């Protein structure tokens, strides 16, 4: 499912002394099946932008199209759009509220009016995808660890079978193992089910490792929109925006500055390893 944003501007508290233009003339298109990373300094407009993707916010100016259809058009039901474009907020576990994990995950499918057996199969499938077993079905979400709660919250969105999954900092506050597991599960969803994924993250490592395309927001504008290898070449400009690049990209830059012939377009540990082995294979001493 594709999303197209045309000349989108959004102003908070318009016409009051607190007026704030959070997005200014944003145009972009995300195609079916893409895995896109959205990065930007705090306050650059990422959260405001993603809430336009599923119609939670209405543009002050401009249009949002999902699968070619203007979502604020007369005949469009926004509840349908929100099922197709699933949004997992930051710290989504704060929104868990049912007595049991099973009930919490079934909330969305029940609201969609699905019958009991369809709800049941969706809940089980969603919990399976996020790596939670039957043992947790009847537990209170509040008995679970932080990482497990996060998984329950993500399962609640997956149970609606969205075509597009938007995740705002899904690994914030998790330990390294929990982070990797959740990101691997998201990657699997993308690779195996062909879901379009939009990942908001402050971790350049995660972004460099998983996404095919990076959109960089800066003060309500799109500053870059390109493949990670291209975007991470703009080290100085990203740093000026309060961002950075993956550690291995810094390492490659340093080696290049010292006269070694390595590719500056390295963004993952695996690529850095291969590049260094290639260099050592040529008999270069570090
Ligand atoms: N409810 C609001 N009322 C007024 N201004 C707001 C509101 N929410 C956000 N803003 C402002 O809009 C701008 C964009 O904020 P937004 O939350 O979209 O940024 P962000 O990139 O998602 O930040 P973060 O990384 O901290 O989540 C900021 O200047 C912010 O202060």
> What value does the Rg take, in angstroms?
21 Å
Total of DSSP H or I helical runs spanning 4+ residues: 11
**Neighbour order of strands in the largest sheet:** 6-7-8-3-9-10
Amount of beta strand: 15-25%
Helix content: 25-40%
Q: Oligomerization state of this entry? A: single chain
Note the overall shape: globular
What is the H-and-E element order?
EEEHEEHEHHHEHEHEEHHHH
Biggest β-sheet: count, sense, barrel? 6 strands, mixed
Subcellular location: Cell membrane
Membrane topology: Peripheral membrane protein
Protein name: Energy-coupling factor transporter ATP-binding protein EcfA2
Family: Belongs to the ABC transporter superfamily. Energy-coupling factor EcfA family.
Question: Your description of this structure?
Answer:
This protein is 39% helix and 21% strand. The chain is an alpha/beta fold and 286 residues long. The strands form 2 sheets. The chain has a 6-stranded mixed sheet with strand order 6-7-8-3-9-10, with helices on both faces. 36% of the residues are buried. The structure holds adenosine-5'-triphosphate. Adenosine-5'-triphosphate binds at residues 12-13, 20, 22, 40, 42-48.
């Amino acid at each position: 499912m594709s999303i197209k944003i045309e000349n989108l501007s959004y102003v908070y508290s318009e016409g009051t002394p607190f007026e704030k233009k959070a997005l200014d003339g944003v145009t972009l298109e995300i195609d079916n099946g893409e895995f896109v990373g959205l990065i930007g300094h705090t306050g650059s407009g990422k959260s405001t932008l993603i809430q336009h993707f599923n119609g939670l916010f209405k543009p002050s100016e401009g249009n949002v199209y999902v699968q070619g259809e203007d979502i604020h058009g007369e005949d469009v039901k926004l509840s349908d759009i929100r099922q197709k474009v699933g949004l997992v907020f930051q710290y989504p576990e704060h929104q868990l509220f049912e007595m049991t994990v099973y009930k919490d995950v079934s909330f969305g499918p029940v609201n969609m009016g699905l019958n009991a057996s369809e709800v049941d199969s969706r809940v089980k499938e969603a919990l399976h995808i996020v790596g939670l077993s039957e043992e947790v079905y009847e537990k209170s979400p509040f008995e679970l660890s932080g990482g497990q709660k996060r998984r329950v919250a993500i399962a609640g969105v997956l149970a609606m079978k969205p075509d597009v999954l938007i995740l705002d900092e899904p690994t914030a506050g998790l330990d390294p193992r929990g982070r990797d597991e959740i990101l691997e599960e998201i990657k699997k969803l993308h690779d195996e089910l062909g879901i379009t994924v939009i990942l908001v993250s402050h971790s350049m490592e995660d972004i460099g490792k998983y996404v095919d395309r990076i959109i960089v927001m800066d003060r309500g504008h799109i500053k870059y929109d390109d493949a990670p290898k291209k975007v991470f070449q703009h080290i100085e400009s990203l740093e000026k925006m309060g961002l950075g690049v993956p550690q291995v990209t810094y390492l490659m830059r340093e080696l290049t500055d010292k006269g070694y012939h390595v590719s500056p377009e390295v963004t993952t540990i695996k690529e850095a390893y291969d590049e260094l082995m290639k260099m050592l294979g040529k008999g270069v001493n570090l």
